[in-house]
Amino acid sequence: MRPTNRTTTKWNPGWIPQDCKSKTQGAGLNPLDVETFEVRYDDCSVLWIMCRHNSSPDPLGNMVDLFGRLPVKTRQYVRHMIALPDPNGGHAYNSNGNIAMFNRINGDLTVFIHEAARPLDLLGAYPDKPLSSSANWINDYNQDTHVPDPYAQANQVENVVQNTVVDSYNLNMPGLFESVEPGWQKIFHQFATVQTPQRNAGNFLVPGGTCSLRLANSASVPQTSATKRWFGKSAAVAATKPNIALPVGLKVIPSKEFS
């Protein structure tokens, strides 16, 4: 998948999206050490708001570049990207449309595909909403003898997600999966049950087109309370609160809690 041209603008200190703040605090980190950026890709008129802790070992440009390689119709199901450090090693998760990447794990495009695939399933990108609990999926799963990898054995949501990774490569590099995996027919019904519905829903795993809907951004909030200091730090709050509203008329994806 090729990169997408983009422009990046840094927020003034003092403000942060609420979801970035809560994920940062949940990791035991200081929101005052997080910088917030607006990233506008050429294939979507609506920007994404991303956050990066200044101790993250991965540069901002890497996250922006790899996220932009996802097809825009997949990208639109992601609310915020968040890059955080973790001394225990690299990992990632998607919570309510927010993708948090820890350490250097976001050097791997498959991790971006995996985490972006979760809201595709759970927030209704497929005609079956969600695909992972639909009769169509279960029926085709029962026709196969294997799943893509051990991670897909965890549950059907993870199975759909891992099959989405397979399909993303197979759709964008036709024949690749069959050429590297002699046993591909053992999961054929599963990845076909991702491939056909995504095509019917607008080919959201293939580059092209533009964004037509988005998850609402989380509210912009002060990085720290005016009455308390976080680890002895404080930040001046810029006079103008960043505008995070989506354009009038753009369809908003109904949100729900998941992780």
Structure description:
- The protein is an alpha/beta fold and 259 residues long.
- Helix content is 31%, strand content 17%.
- It has helices at 18-26, 60-69, 72-75, 109-122, 135-141, 156-172, 176-180, 188-200, and strands at 6-10, 15-17, 34-41, 48-53, 80-84, 91-95, 98-102, 213-214, 220-222, 251-252.
- Helix 4 packs across helix 6 and helix 6 crosses helix 8 (188-200).
- The longest helix is centred in the middle third of the chain and has 17 residues, at 156-172.
- The relative contact order is 0.18.
- The model has no long low-confidence stretch (mean pLDDT 91).
Low-confidence stretches: none
Counting DSSP E segments of at least 2 residues, the number of strands comes to 10
- Classify the secondary structure makeup into a structural class: alpha/beta
What sequence of helices (H) and strands (E) makes up the elements? EEHEEHHEEEHHHHHEEE
Radius of gyration, taken over Cα atoms and rounded to an integer in Å: 19 Å
Shape: globular
Which properties best describe this structure?
259 residues, alpha/beta, 10 strands, globular
Q: What's this, in brief?
A:
The protein is 31% helix and 17% strand.
What's the structural blueprint in terms of helices and strands?
Layout: E1 6-10, E2 15-17, H1 18-26, E3 34-41, E4 48-53, H2 60-69, H3 72-75, E5 80-84, E6 91-95, E7 98-102, H4 109-122, H5 135-141, H6 156-172, H7 176-180, H8 188-200, E8 213-214, E9 220-222, E10 251-252
Parallel strand pairs: 4-5, 5-7, 8-10
Antiparallel strand pairs: 1-3, 2-9, 3-4, 6-7
